Amino acid sequence: MKVQRYLSAIYILIVVALIAGCYEGYVGNEGAMLKEYLEPAKLKELVNNPRADIWIIDVRPESAFKKAHIPSAKNFPSGRIMERLSELPKTQYLIVTCETGGRAQMVIKRLEKAGYTRFMNWGANSRYFNVYGSISE
Question: Which bin fits 91, alpha (ψ -120 to 50), beta or left (φ > 0)?
């Protein structure tokens, strides 16, 4: 009985990991140039040399963002992003990140419906944290 529950839990974790990984690198119609920043080393270059036309958007809750985030990232919690669209110019390139990439993809789908086309799902911010660390507030 315990073995069956254990195997079920492992199966669920594998499925969640596969689904979340499928979103990494998803881009909008005008977001292909952002794929240059898909690898952590390239994102680090962007963090060190920011471009005014590219924002890193962290869609985790504010409490998680305050504990750890990618330097220069802006926090737009997924639950409030639609209320804050006026703060996100459609001309801006957006690199969207979260814990796994799943929440980022949900936000991206909302942004697409609202007419945004310049974005990329960067996936799990832990890909950055594990190599370069994070900052907290």
Answer: alpha
Nearest to 23 by CA among 102, 113, 112: 102
Q: What is the pLDDT of residues 58-83, one digit of tens each?
A: 999 999 999 999 999 999 999 999 99
Spatial separation of the C-alpha atoms in residues 87 and 76, rounded to whole Å: 10
Q: At what angle do helices 2-23 and 102-113 cross, to 10 degrees?
A: 40
What is the model's pTM?
Answer: 0.82
Domains of the chain: 2-132 (3.40.250.10)
Confidence class for position 10, pLDDT limits 50, 70, 90: low
Count of H-run helices and E-run strands, the chain: 5, 4
Which structure tokens are listed for 12?
Answer: 């669920």
